[in-house]
Design a protein that fits this description.
Blueprint lengths: L1 H7 L2 H26 L3 H22 L4 H25 L4 H26 L3 H10 L7 H20 L1 H9 L1 H6 L4 H18 L9 H13 L5 H25 L5 H19 L5 H30 L7 E2 H8 L5 H9 L3 E6 L2 E8 L1 H11 L12
Antiparallel strand pairs: 1-3, 2-3
Helix pairs in contact: 2-3, 2-7, 2-10, 2-11, 2-12, 3-4, 3-5, 3-10, 3-11, 4-5, 4-10, 7-10, 11-12, 11-13, 12-13, 14-17
Length: 384
Amino acid sequence: MSALADLLSSGIVVTVLTGAAMLGAISGMLGAFAVLRRQSLLGDALSHAALPGVCLGFLIAGGRDLGSVMLGAFATGALAALVMMLIVRRTTLKTDAALGIVLSVFFAVGIVLLTVIQTQGGAGNLGLMTFLFGQAAAILRSDLWIMGGIGLGALALVLAFWKEFKLVSFDADFARAQGFPVTLLEAGLTVMVALAIVAGLQLVGVVLMVALLIAPAAAARQWTNALGPMVLLSATIGAASGAGGALVSATTRGLATGPVVVLIATGAVLVSLLIAPGRGLVWQALAARQARARISDGRVLATLRGFAQAHDDAGYPAERGMLQTALGAAPPGTRIASLERRGLIRSVTHPPETTPHWELTQAGHAEAESLAGQPDGPEQEREP
């Protein structure tokens, strides 16, 4: 606790921690809409499209001027979003193709400009690299005001147009049929994503920003089906990833903050994919195992019931060989033991035979009858 207190007593650490948490919350909130609109590549395209804007801002200002670089990044990001929307609206290409075109073309332009800047030499080039890969230590308190303004503006827009954004995210065609300005709403969401990318230039950089946009939303999507909880959870995961990455970076010398933030967010995705109730891989595996067990139990009960009906004897005992012949394979001992524990069958003797026999209990008959009455029950014969 004392080490943490000493760490938080540093003004630089507090600034980076606050900025990372704010950026994670903004990215998580806006990334949720991108994920629901199936435009996860949007963040990647806009973040790469910000590269030529960073270079142009650097060239115009003649050095590492934060205002010029951020304005240039936003300008090229917004232009990329406009070009993408025009391609989708005016051609037969789908959104993913338009995003791929925008990403590759704008990033290629950025690489060319970056090469031009590098040929000029000078110490200023080192400052440019901080916008490409992020440098959390370069964040100033004044930058927090910019992040806070972007975050409050994005939150205000989301709250003001919550119903419209919700409808556009889930069913844009229906929203268009109802007379909503879908193109304008989608443009608003895209511009907010571009603003989030601009806000993350200092901390994460244009290369890794897409991960901070998509990872918290992808993790949150595994835990809920409702938009409100998803946006809130995504923002929380993003903020926690940002704060956690800042703390880990501050306690480890030479460890960059941006990549650590992204790795923590990615870890949240992996954990969510594994253990999220209902959707996690672990839960799905357990559900599949339980389903197979129910089917196996149902087949055993149906077979015993069929023997009892064929011999007009509710307590007719059947031995393993009979079950194996009827089922095509001997029922696993674990399934027999499970049915016995549940009180659906019981082991009985059948002199002079010495092999184990089983018969249905009253509860077993009721369960077998219930299964037979279901549409896909074990005993139901399907018509050809």
